[in-house]
Amino acid sequence: MDVNLIKNFLNSTSAIMTEEKMHLIEEDSKVGDGDLGLTMSDGFEAAANSLKDSDETDCGKALYFAGKAMSIKVPSTMGTLMASGLMQAGKILKGKTELSREDVVTIFEEYLNGVMNRGKAKIGEKTFVDGLAPAVESLKNTITLSLKESAEIASKAALEGYYATEGMLAVHGRAATRGEESRKLLDPGALVAALLMKAFYLSLE
Predict the structure, then answer these.
(1) What CATH number has the domain bearing residue 156?
(2) Total structural domains within the chain
């Protein structure tokens, strides 16, 4: 596995975020300002396009450049968080031109770390983290399976994480201003995590 895995993943993510743009807008409108669909579709399109004609073979640099392109295109809160995830993964994998199964797990583990460090969110606070954290744990636990099988299970784990945000008390963003009422809603950020993992699964041959 090499940089093409990253390119395929980002192309797939861009396509899914564009496809789900209206869905994300609708879900975000319930708790925020409704711009999540635009932010994610524009942001991941910029990330994917940054590598489209690139001959970069360093997987870490590719991830970092993609994150940088995203941060410039969508400098909103969520855009910055998603870009931070890509850039953090890029920093850790810098110098790698070949990716092991462990390195693939690292991409998503460090993506999670980058988002958590930047946004100061923890598991259980009704955010993107609650969608991605179960997927990362799943990828670790299924590392002996084929990557396609592992990614499918992780995608399902992320979706379950998203559904589990119903009942959680929002701690961050506009949803937090609703107090106990926020428990009735699903978190759109966690939906982004579920779409991210679905995109990864679909990007694999």
Answers:
(1) 1.25.40.340
(2) 1
Range of the domain at 69: 3-203
Which amino acid would we find at residue 94? K
- The contacts of residue 181 (CB under 8 Å, 6+ apart) are none
- Reported as a single tens digit per residue, the pLDDT across 102-146 is 999 999 999 999 999 988 889 988 899 999 999 999 999 999 999
Distance between CA 87 and CA 101 in Å, rounded?
Answer: 20
Interatomic CA distance for residues 79 and 83, integer angstroms: 6
- pTM to 2 decimal places: 0.92
